[in-house]
DNA sequence: CGAATAGTGTCTATCAGACAATATAAT
DNA sequence: ATTATATTGTCTGATAGACACTATTCG
């Protein structure tokens, strides 16, 4: 490579004996503008860079079935062809990973969510976590208000798996498909395997919710705009792995009263009418 | 599929009319081994990928000065030449971002830390956060046991800045250099500016420590292997922005007793001998 | 002894959790 | 009225925080 031949048209610029001298000149003596122009032309493809993906743990809750669910897709391409995996995709230029998460969620599930609904979990970068090569993933957690279309998009099979906690195990079930993983270790223990390190990601998401529920009950966005105390107890019970009756109504309400706003009464239903609540929005993270 | 037009180098493989057909074949019909071989050869350079860096918020605490400090380097290259910035660098192939963090910390400060000392903070990916182009950074938080060499390495000036909290402001000071930032908004308000979005990263680190201190007092690693209750109070006071005397000794000890192990007594010093403690290690995250 | 430092004990308002009582509506 | 569901109220043990007291060492 000829190092003294960069931008002949610009007489301001000196010539260089070697690459190191040129680098030093642009990094320390040239103007920032000249540096950036030089960098884009010479440095941008010099080093190997990883691909970056997002992987999204999308939870929803179905009131009728009283089931917590997580969205998985069956991969129809290599690698991990026919394995279940989290939805996600490659981050594109000129977008943040937050935006990637929202874009992928919208295209894969048809549900529009905002940055208020998502939360960055962790960035996974273990070498060889993806057999295709150097691929880093930024994982996200999102709570979908109501169960949307379950039909797959992008020519993939996309299904909601019910999530049942038993001790430290999560049972992800949809019909004949069953995946069992330990969310303390992040490993699948029986049944089908998950693609890549997605068992770790799901575990991290579940633990995050569990640890923050009472302090930051964002998980109640699973119930949409408004909900009753009992509905909130049912959602918490899914993460605690217990029947919702074991969560005392009175104590639960006391614990969360600071995070909730009362909206009115639910007009229909058996028994005393429930009051309906919504999450306070003014929380500054 | 047409099998009558074999490739010379591998008779097993078919030829394709167009790129799309080829992609479809490898993704869905070929073996995974063949797919991966094809992917590496054809797909690896097809899409633009970002550079990925790590940025490390390294805190230390000096007992003699009773000062919390954060390590900043003065950049001697574009972009942000002469601005103060967090130490960090590009993630290399075949290493995780955790390993990058440890490697960069070792080379920039001379201090060897283990994965026990670091914690991933957040991945920042706002477009144009770096004028050089598409650069994503994974930020880390680390607690250095004792103040190491302050001399810069890598031909950069590296200095420990004392960190003083006043209300929502952090004052980062080293001699004539002073940077003031609001850790609630993540913005510098006066004095010198920080490079890139590093004010946001430092703010995130400070808030993370503040929110988790009592629940997960990993911050006490600032005090090395062992410490007295009063030393621990002094560290907490730095993050709370108050004199350590306002933290009641008795109540503080009660709050942290579950996280500490008593080692013995400190033999020297004025007044009643202090007991020395260390952090319990058995915490599973 | 007195000053300085640090560990220990006590009191109280508050709160989480267990449990009881009341309110409403469908059958 | 009975039953199911939900809300409201009460009691108690535990705890955080304020404060007081005791223990040790140095000058």
From TrEMBL, chains A, B:
UniProt cross-references to Gene3D superfamilies, sorted A to Z: Nucleoside Triphosphate Pyrophosphohydrolase (3.90.79.10), Nudix-associated domain (1.10.287.1030), Winged helix-like DNA-binding domain superfamily/Winged helix DNA-binding domain (1.10.10.10)
Matching CDD domains: NUDIX_NadM_like (cd18873)
Protein name as it appears in the record: DNA mismatch repair protein MutT
PANTHER family registered for this protein in UniProt: ADP-RIBOSE PYROPHOSPHATASE (PTHR43736), SLR1690 PROTEIN (PTHR43736:SF4)
One Pfam assignment: NUDIX
InterPro entries per record: NUDIX_hydrolase-like_dom_sf (IPR015797), NUDIX_hydrolase_dom (IPR000086), WH-like_DNA-bd_sf (IPR036388), WH_DNA-bd_sf (IPR036390), WHD_NrtR (IPR054105)
The Nudix hydrolase domain, residue ranges: 45-185
Organism listed in the record: Vagococcus entomophilus
């Amino acid at each position: 490579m000829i190092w003294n031949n960069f931008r002949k048209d610009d007489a301001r610029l000196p010539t260089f004996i070697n690459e190191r001298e040129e680098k030093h000149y642009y990094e320390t003596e040239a103007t920032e503008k000249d540096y950036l122009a030089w960098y884009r032309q010479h440095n941008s493809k010099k080093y190997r860079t990883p691909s970056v993906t997002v992987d999204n743990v999308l939870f929803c809750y179905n009131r009728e079935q009283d089931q917590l669910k997580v969205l998985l897709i069956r991969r129809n391409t290599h690698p991990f062809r026919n394995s279940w995996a989290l939805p996600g995709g490659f981050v594109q230029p000129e977008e943040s990973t937050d935006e990637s998460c929202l874009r992928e969620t919208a295209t894969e599930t048809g549900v529009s969510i905002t940055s208020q609904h998502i939360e960055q979990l962790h960035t996974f970068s273990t070498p060889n976590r993806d057999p295709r090569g150097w691929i880093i993933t930024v994982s996200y957690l999102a709570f979908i208000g109501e169960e949307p279309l379950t039909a797959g998009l992008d020519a993939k099979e996309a299904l909601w798996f019910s999530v049942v906690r038993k001790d430290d195990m999560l049972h992800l079930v949809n019909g004949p498909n069953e995946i069992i993983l330990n969310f303390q270790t992040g490993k699948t223990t029986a049944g089908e395997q998950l693609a890549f390190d997605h068992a770790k990601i799901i575990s991290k998401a579940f633990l995050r919710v569990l640890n923050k529920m009472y302090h930051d009950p964002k998980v109640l966005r699973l119930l949409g705009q408004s909900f009753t105390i009992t509905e909130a107890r049912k959602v918490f019970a899914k993460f605690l792995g217990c029947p919702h009756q074991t969560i005392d109504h009175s104590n639960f309400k006391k614990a969360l009263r600071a995070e909730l706003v009362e909206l009115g009464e639910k007009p229909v239903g058996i028994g005393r009418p429930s009051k309906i609540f919504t999450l306070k929005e003014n929380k500054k993270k």
